[in-house]
């Protein structure tokens, strides 16, 4: 049995995979595959409707927000956010908490001015900067809720008079969030919500249409809202599997229930990292991510052997990102706590052998 | 048994669906689903490499062209083509052969001037306009090789001194094409190449980087080329199924072999439409599509009953597009000629009952 700690595209629930495979052969018993039916068919429209409804329900999305399933990943949103929200000559504020935040702010520069109000670059992004002046005059304040590469996470969101825009790609639906605190939330599906190929956007309608800029149809959130995420052919299968994953989450008790599980998984794993003399954490404890647990070996000579040892136990995907090194165990929603215990046992067994 | 004549997302080969479903459960026996592995894993890199290689082989793509698998559908390309190829103040030439050509030229207006060098709008797009002046000064000449909605197809491509840009979404890999005649070819996968969620782009490298315009990373073909279609997480599963479909096409004998089958399918079906007194074709015979066969009933009262009768024979998806009416039988690569004969027999039986 494999224990999938990969950082993304990441683990999906086994029952979702079974349902998805069945749908590829024969979708809901209609005699056709989900891959070969029209997106305008009542069958797929029901899928998209349910996906949107589940997002609204699970995240308690208030009135006045639209929920979109788009394409292009969070990297496309890095450009679409300023395209739609940053007026010519205006300024957007960014908190730089890692590689993805940095990529986001670079794209904003194509559309206007960027103010980096805080950065943790000098400490290799091992903490979340929290003290900065409220960028009251900015078109928006952009934050990244979880830093997949270095393993930090915002445990509280900043207060801001400018609309808060948040990239939640790697922790969406992992914990309760007050959507009304945000102007826009976006997330690539492939870490916590579904497979690669679709991107969730939750946007406060009243923020749109104010830049004075002409926006091509596919890049304009308003076109996508009017088209109900079907201005053109949507990514049918990625949306289908995301819907199945959201349905699974609801059946598990929703975001509140999964948050408890995620906290328990993170707690036992960090406890072992702190306790085990062979390993050490990377980030400031108060900013540690509950999704991507980054850790190092005290003795660099143990790095390769531990990776190999873990693999022999069926543990997959714990090699750290090339820009961070060490190990990274991604413990997304679909990863059972039993897999975390397998990793902990492997760490203990390895320490026992190497003491 | 269902006979899937849907216009898109359209029919896929049964063996591809079986392989795809197996990959969702356990990809190549690695113990993980294709939906939950890293796009940077050697397993997925091999998939993407093979997909690119198969495109090059099947379409005989010459040196100097790049092959990309992107997201966003052809509708995104409507904007990316002028974003990347139309300099500020420059003019792009468009041939307007239907709804999709019209949508493409509208997006170009966000980036520069548009010259519509020919249109068939006055005849409700039932023919392909062929006489127009070579737009020698244009940044490019844009054409749409097949008109999915009205059922026309360019049987010959125009000569042009400007680079030829072609939307081949609905007939890619259905017939031989001389790629070196084109500056850029693009196609949404979901009609003839795979499921919804990925878009093929074949671009002549030397055309890029000449607009003087700063282009956000995800919209810049050069970024995508440098990233090998992996500047960010690609749509893993849609690319996988496209690769399986291309592999299937190669095993069938490639584009030349499928072209013969497609011509045979179109020939027998149009023959029946012309012969059967209850039905009539929509388009000028010389411009008729070999992919989307549009036809009408002579007596409008026969429309609904024939649709119902066809459905009773397992025939799916032949209702015409809302803007064209009547019937449309899409006979993409994966549709076997046996299904075409089922439709022909239904037409004959219906005519017998209603004479």
Automatic annotation (TrEMBL), chains A, B:
Provide the protein's localization: Cytoplasm
Q: Which UniProt keywords apply?
A: Amino-acid biosynthesis, Aminotransferase, Cytoplasm, Pyridoxal phosphate, Pyridoxine biosynthesis, Serine biosynthesis, Transferase
Q: What GO molecular function annotation could you give as one example from this UniProt entry? A: pyridoxal phosphate binding
Q: Which organism is it from?
A: Mucilaginibacter myungsuensis
Q: What is this protein called?
A: Phosphoserine aminotransferase
The keyword tRNA-binding appears for this protein = no
Q: What is its EC number?
A: 2.6.1.52
Q: Where is the Aminotransferase class V domain?
A: 4-335
| Any single GO CC term annotated in Swiss-Prot or TrEMBL for this entry | cytoplasm
**UniProt binding sites for pyridoxal 5'-phosphate:** 74-75, 100, 148, 167, 190, 232-233
Q: What is its main location?
A: cytoplasm
Q: Does the keyword Aminoacyl-tRNA synthetase apply?
A: no
The pathway this protein participates in, as annotated, is: Amino-acid biosynthesis; L-serine biosynthesis; L-serine from 3-phospho-D-glycerate: step 2/3; Cofactor biosynthesis; pyridoxine 5'-phosphate biosynthesis; pyridoxine 5'-phosphate from D-erythrose 4-phosphate: step 3/5
What GO biological process terms does the UniProt entry carry, in alphabetical order?
Answer: L-serine biosynthetic process; pyridoxine biosynthetic process
What positions does the entry give for L-glutamate binding? Answer: 40
Q: Tell me which family the UniProt entry assigns to this protein.
A: Belongs to the class-V pyridoxal-phosphate-dependent aminotransferase family. SerC subfamily.
Oligomeric and partner information: Homodimer.
Entry-annotated residues carrying N6-(pyridoxal phosphate)lysine: 191
Record function comment? Catalyzes the reversible conversion of 3-phosphohydroxypyruvate to phosphoserine and of 3-hydroxy-2-oxo-4-phosphonooxybutanoate to phosphohydroxythreonine.
Name the needed cofactors: pyridoxal 5'-phosphate
Q: Which residues form the signal peptide?
A: none
Give me the reactions it catalyses. 4-(phosphooxy)-L-threonine + 2-oxoglutarate = (R)-3-hydroxy-2-oxo-4-phosphooxybutanoate + L-glutamate; O-phospho-L-serine + 2-oxoglutarate = 3-phosphooxypyruvate + L-glutamate
Cofactor binding annotation: Binds 1 pyridoxal phosphate per subunit.
What PANTHER family is this protein classified in? PHOSPHOSERINE AMINOTRANSFERASE
